[in-house]
Amino acid sequence: MPPWFRFLTLICTVAALSGCRDKNPPPAPPEAMTTQPTPRVTADDVQRIIRRDFGDARTAEVQALLSRYGTKDWQREPARVHLAILKLAKGDVSQLKLHTETACSDYRDVLSPAEYRRYSALAWSTPKDPKAEQQAMRDDWEEYQSWLARKTPAP
C-alpha cells in the first residue's frame, strides 16, 4: 500500500470520527444524479474498441502500447483506463502513446477527461451550480455510452 494512501485513509478516518461529515444530508430529488456513474467494462470491450478505432492491422501494436498500463499494483482498473486512453486517442497512435504515458503517471488524468469531461470543468468552479453539475453528469454519461456503443470509428 503506497504511503499516500495510508495518509489519506488516516485523514478520512479522523474526519469521520470528528463528525466532519454531515450525518443526515438532505435527500436529493428523485431525478437528480447525485454521483458520477462509473462504466463497467471488460477486456472484450477494449478489444472491440481497438479493432473499431485502429483496425485489425494495428491491433497488436495498440495492445502492446496499452499493456504499459496495469503493471504496477496501484494502476487500477486496466480495462476502464485502457478504454479512457482509447477514447482520448481517437484512433491516433501518437495520442495513444501520450495518453498511455499520462495514465502510467496518474490514471485519473485520463479518466477525468474521457469519462467526466463536462463535470470536471465545473467541479472546481465557484459558486457551485448543482443543476449544471447534474446536467454535466448526465451529458458525460450519455457521451461515454454513445462512444462505447458506436459501431464505426469517428470521422
Notes on the protein architecture:
This protein is mostly helical and 155 residues long. The protein contains 8 helices and no strands. The radius of gyration is 18 Å and the shape is globular.
Topology overview:
Layout (H helix, E strand, L loop, with lengths): L2 H15 L25 H12 L4 H8 L11 H12 L3 H13 L2 H8 L1 H7 L6 H20 L6
Helix pairs in contact: 2-4, 4-5, 4-6, 5-6, 7-8
Helix/strand order: HHHHHHHH
Shape, per Cα inertia axes: globular
Largest sheet: none
Number of helices: 8
Alpha-carbon distance between the termini? 43 Å
Q: Over the alpha carbons, how many angstroms does the gyration radius reach?
A: 18 Å
Secondary structure class reads mainly alpha
Percent of residues in β-strands? under 5%
Distinctive features:
155 residues; 61% helix; mainly alpha
Describe this structure in a few short sentences.
With 155 residues, the protein is mainly alpha-helical. The chain has helices at residues 3-17, 43-54, 59-66, 78-89, 93-105, 108-115, 117-123, 130-149.
